[in-house]
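Subject: Sanity check before I submit

Could someone independently write out the structure tokens for this chain? I want to compare against mine line by line before I put it in a report. The sequence has 111 residues.
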Amino acid sequence: MVAKSKAKAKDSSRSGTSYAQVAQEVLNGKWGANPERADRLSAEGYDPGAVQTEVNRRLGGGAPSAYRDDVATVALQVTRGQWGEDAECRRRLEGAGYNLFEVQAEIDKRA
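---
Independent answer below. Compare away.
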């Protein structure tokens, strides 16, 4: 019973928060840094890719370097396994707004 009431409370608080509001929270640093941010957003029922799209829109569509790690840093994190394996890694990178081809090219440069 307790688990159900907690889940309902989480759902009801989430339903009142739009992606625009969550994107602003991301910009304010409330959700942390990737890859953990994407995981936290997913755990709360948000689509990390949709949130990142809104963040990018608010930042003029450019790569939000002040809010995301650069590709070289992410490539190093991927090689260390910090983003997971295979499909999980791809899902998390895309959800965080990274270009998979750019990350792979950076990994290939380091090999």
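---
OP: Matches mine. For the report I'm noting this point. The chain has seven helices and no strands.
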